Amino acid sequence: MKLIIKITLLFVLISSVVFLIGGVITYEAMSLEIEKEEKFFLEERMESVLRYLGRRPAKERVVRDKLIIQPMDSLTAETDVVFSDTLVTHAMLQRMESHLKLDVIRKVNGRTYKITIYDLIVEEDDIIEAVRSAMLKTFLLLLIVSLLLSFLASYFVFRPFQSTLSAIRSFSIKSSDTVKLPPSTTSEFKKLNQFADEMMAKARNDYSALKEFSENASHELQTPLSIARGKLELLMESEGLREDQMELISGAQHALTRLSKLGNSLSLLTKIENQEFSDFEQVDMTALASRMIDEFKELIKLKEIELEVDVSPGVNINGNQTLLELLIANLMNNAIRHNYSGGKLKVVLENAFIAISNTSHSQQVNTSELFERFKKGTENPDSSGLGLSIVKKICEQHQFRVDYSISQEQHVLTVCWESV
Amino acid sequence: MKLLVVEDHDQLSANIRSYLNQEGYVCEVADNYQQAVEKLYAYEYDLVALDLMLPDGNGLDLLRSIKENWPDICVLIISAKNALDDKLQGLNLGADDYLAKPFHLAELNARLKAIFRRKNQQGNDGIVFEEITLNTANFEVKVHDTILDLTRKEFELFQYLMLNQNRVLTKQSIAEHLWGDYMDTADSFDFVYQHIKNLRKKIAEAGGSDYIHTVYGVGYKFKKQ
Fold first, then answer.
1. ipTM
2. CA closest to B217 among chain A residues
3. Which of A131, A136, B89, B171 is most deeply buried (CB count within 10 A of its CB)?
4. In what residue span(s) does the Histidine kinase domain sit (chain A) (predicted)?
């Protein structure tokens, strides 16, 4: 629910309470005023009756419309005006209606009269009816006007907020363009903009520091390895080395190569984690898969593995070219590494997934362990144990699903890009 | 051939210099940006091997300046950053090749020679060794005028051997040259062996001598009997 609607509803709720109380107050005020006016009106009529009696004294009881004049004993004392309620049959409506009655005993030119005047009063129901309808109409008007105005106001008041939101949405941690947040006169939005500015700057700083660190770490690791390997290469060139000495040197070089590959794989994982490969584009998977299969054909042949390829034409997905290449290379490498001479390797590319299956001497592997770093089978002490971790990272980055299953002695790794 | 190595790790540049001196290069070393610029102004070089991370500047800036002032000098980038951006940017700026650290010195040697040959192409793309001629332009190897029927990988392997004559080439170095990073080291040695076996057979069938010597447990060496 939009903030402005919430605020408006709250406002309407409060005003409905105010309107209820206001209705009661209005009712009280109205009935008080009406009663006062009626008493005043009856008193005025009494005065005019008295004037009339002064000119033409009444000798006997006079009953007129809403007026009774009763001549009294001259000894009867004068009284104050007394108001009371009474019920009188209404002439036109033919039913009892409550009236306000005025009773008084006065002497006019030596004669004493008891005068009774009454009139129809505005009933309680009628006042309530009137107040209710007036309040309801006003309330409805308020509701409509406040809703309309709040929508209109929200457009103007919340405009800086909306543009801040869209600026934050388009924020990229890697680009160096400064994000321009629109100025606002609202103090809350000013605070928000300031906060967002600081957050973005900090995120960028942290990101570039991290990126620089992993690059430098890789550099600092690879340089000494490079030096050591070069020295060994030079050593190998020296005259008069025995074969066993050569073999020692070669062994040392081999270990150094593994170390440097390990460093590269770890820094690749860090780079994927740092989202350094976020340029996504349409990638022709059919072409990419065919190309990668060609790259590996020779190795597959050399290892005497039977290759079966089923690549659907025209498979395009949104992703990073470099990472997708690495993904297939790692899957292929994995399928070849754990295969045996005379085994099988099958690559299936469909619109929604790629599945690479291979025969292997290894038994069923625990799926959760499969993608962990440095988990490796017993057969290949030389493998880094990072290949499938890289596969998993790439899948996470692309929001692909990767599954492992075993069927008919075939280990199958499936990467799905469309949720089926 | 005169080569300037711009590299701040003196041990690394010493390795390169000592390896390449044997190949007949005149090899000089600059260990920072400033020194490299001074040397470039003072002497003439055919080739610069350039590290991108220098203590007093960015190698890419130096590359830009070389391509502006000395467009004839070839540049080989050596970098441990292995960042794709740097590689693409470097090649776009006119670098001739890119080599990621750590590398085999034999690989560096082969790359430098390849750059050099591309630069000095004057109708002669061949490397001649006794009765064998290797033509880099049309990927042909002739033994006594018989053209060998080689696969692409066999050609690359033979070229690598010929470019690094009289040197021990380890199986790792050969495997990395042929397959790059895709190859799994455990399998690759068998593959290198099979390729060498095929190559020897094809050369022998054409009547060539076997110049590929096995260095037991280590690798191979291409040299005269």
1. 0.78
2. A247
3. B171
4. 216-404
